[in-house]
Amino acid sequence: MIAKISCRLARRVSTEAHRTTQVRRFLHGAYFRIQPSIQEALVEGRPVVALESTIITHGMAYPQNLSMAREVEKIVMRNGAVPATIGILKGQIHVGLTDEELQFLASSKNVVKVSQRDLPYVLSQGLSGGTTVSGTMIAAHKAGIPVFVTGGIGGVHRGGENTLDVSADLTELGRTPVAVVSAGVKSILDIGRTLEYLETQGVCVAAFGESRMFPAFFSSQSGFQAPYRVQDEEEAAKLIASTLGLGLSSGVLIAVPCPQEQAAPGQLIEDAIQQALSEARSKGITGKELTPFLLQKINELTNGKSLDSNLALIQNNARVGSGIAVALSKLQKATRKGSLPRRGDTTLPQPVVIGGINVDFIAKAQNSVILGGGQTNAGRVRRTFGGVGRNLADCLSRLGLTPLFLSAVGKDEHSESILHYCHHMDMSAILQLEGKSTATYSAMITSAGELSIGLGDMDIHQQITEQYVSQFKENLCRAPLVCIDGNVPLSTIQYICQLARDHQLAEAPSRLEDIIKMAAALARPLLSHLCCVVVTLGAHGVLLCGRSLGGSISLRPAPHEQTAAASLCATHYPAIPISREEIVNVSGAGDSLMAGIAAGMLANHDTDTCVRMGLLAARFSLCSYEPISPEISTSTVSQEQVQSKPWPEVKVWKLD
User: Fold this and answer.
1) Is 333 a catalytic residue?
2) CA of 351: how far to CAs of 185, 494, 618, in Å?
3) CA distances, 317 to each of 242, 305, 322, 329, 390 (Å)
4) Torsion (CA) 446, 448, 450, 453 in degrees, nearest 10
5) What is the CB neighbour count within 10 angstroms for residue 110?
6) For residues 214 and 220, what is the distance between their CA atoms, to the nearest angstrom?
7) Between residues 101 and 220, which one has the greater pLDDT?
């Protein structure tokens, strides 16, 4: 068993950084941009509603499509949620569009209708387009938005049993956990076969309101019943919460009937559909062009009645969907509050991280010179969540290790946002203390990315006491790894060290953060007590100081007879090359490095692989707005990724 003591003895060397826009890098090199106001709402746990953009680009003519998009966003806001219209602009997936971006998509002629299959090509070619239901679901899920409102989903086309023309919307509902609020499926489709296909995909389908009748888009009745019914927004929210809570990979379809006063007569629509289908066949119109053609033709044949119904149902869906999002947000907050006091309910040995949680306010100056004397300097101020302990626990959780995290927060305006943001972590043991303030940290960063001044209000870290930590003695003794933030009280660190000695747990290295010329000198005295020391060097990489066994420094203690024969060495691992333009945030890179190394150790990888996994994790976080990049995962930081990349040459010095 390995216990790891991670102490911050010196502030890391800052690297120069140029803050970019709110961009998260997708895997495989594509891009994903979340509008700042939406990002803030997601972090704070406020309800957000995803909206598609194909209806803007391919569903209606300009300028009616633009006025419709604006009105739907207003409806969502009036009902207490934040609208997030999703579209693709010049090869970037945008979650949330400005009014100028809405106008661009609404008025452009050469934009693509983007389903799941189209995403790689459209992004790689730098094209723009409107996302379909399947495309929007993918983006919403990656952004963490559980509720998506649309007009109607695609389905099995009439004659689909012969043509196999089945919309990707159905398969996406079967593999992406997002709730889709729609007026059923479009009337031009085979509704019965669509419902059968959704059952095959494992999609829970529920009609909304007083009837189980499944709606037919333009009209409220299709002749088919939905498997289930939810009476109101609260029942719908409970259905969605249970799906998410079970960890199912499939979505939920909430079918909302078009308001009766605006619904089109069923026979009028069916006659128009048949005529439109006949014309489509005679013209050879198939594939992704078929649905826009049919909808336009039906509008002509019904003298605009179908379009009036379309607008009414979209607006109604926005009202219902935003109400569901609000109810779901309240339910999730209540669940988090109710689950917080339950501690250590897992029976499997977990790593343990002990340390601080901070709310960080990072201010970056716009100009190269910061003016003093009480003057106001232009710049950007962003709120993030940090703390050495939190950062380590966050990164380890993203790497599939989910440690038990021991820390303390106040019962104040910051704690709820922290618990929401850290939902992927085991926060069950966190102390919430009345009358105490959650730790905050403010930093002024120069335009070149250097720390100018920092101010911390971190008294609550002193509440991470020996008495609190000792409640989890069994977890600590069983843990394969224990990490301690050096900001916790000294008595707590001494307790962990004594526990390790009493239970014959191995003690592994501390982490120092200092400039490269002093690293070996600072590390050497510690090597009489520790097997190795990891020194982070900012842009210069990592220095590993310890005893060389068989040509490389061991991260784990060796038997005494081997240790006596080993020589003291320092190995320098250069950082992965990265440009200024790619660097967004330097605050969590060191913590990501340590978590990557720890993950490699727990997987029993060799020293080189462990360190390079840490360097990979650090690079991801340097390119992320958050201190710990959401892209860190077991697939992006792994032995396979290490082996697939060329690495700069390492250099070894003898310390004896």
Assistant:
1) no
2) 47, 19, 20
3) 22, 18, 8, 18, 39
4) 0
5) 7
6) 8
7) 101
Catalytic residue among 4, 113, 186, 288: 186
The rounded Cα 424 to chain-centroid distance in angstroms is: 9
Q: What is the pLDDT of residue 160?
A: 81
CATH topology of domain 35-336: Indigoidine synthase fold (3.40.1790)
- The partner residues of 442 in beta bridges, in order of sequence, read 361, 455
Which of 52, 73, 513, 631 is the catalytic position?
Answer: 52
Contact 164, 134 (CB under 8 A): no
> Tokens for 356?
């601080």
pLDDT tens digits along 189-210: 899 999 999 999 999 999 999 9
Q: Is 416 labeled as catalytic in the residue annotation?
A: no
Angle, alpha carbons 515-520-524 (nearest 5°): 135
In whole angstroms, give the CA distance from residue 74 to residue 68.
Answer: 10
Instruction: Tell me how far apart the alpha carbons of residues 616 and 606 are, in angstroms, rounded to a whole number.
Output: 16
Give start-end residues of each CATH 3.40.1190.20 domain in the chain: 2-20+342-654
Peptide bond into 646 cis (omega under 30): no
CA atoms within 13 A on the CB side of 364: 17
At 556 the pLDDT is 75
Give the CA angle between residues 488, 386, 449 to the nearest 5°.
115
User: If we measure between CA atoms, which residue out of 402, 401, 424 comes closest to residue 599?
Assistant: 401
209 forms bridges with which residues in the sheet? none
Question: Within the chain, which residue ranges are assigned CATH 3.40.1790.10?
Answer: 35-336
CATH number of the domain located at residue range(s) 2-20+342-654 in this protein: 3.40.1190.20
Q: Mean per-residue pLDDT for 613-619?
A: 93
| pLDDT at 4 (0 to 100) | 35
Would you place residue 12 in the very low, low, confident or very high pLDDT band (cuts 50, 70, 90)?
very low
Q: Considering only CA atoms, which of 5, 58, 158 is closest in space to residue 479?
A: 5
Is residue 581 a contact partner of residue 20, using CB atoms and an 8 Å limit?
yes
What is the reported pLDDT for 521?
A: 65
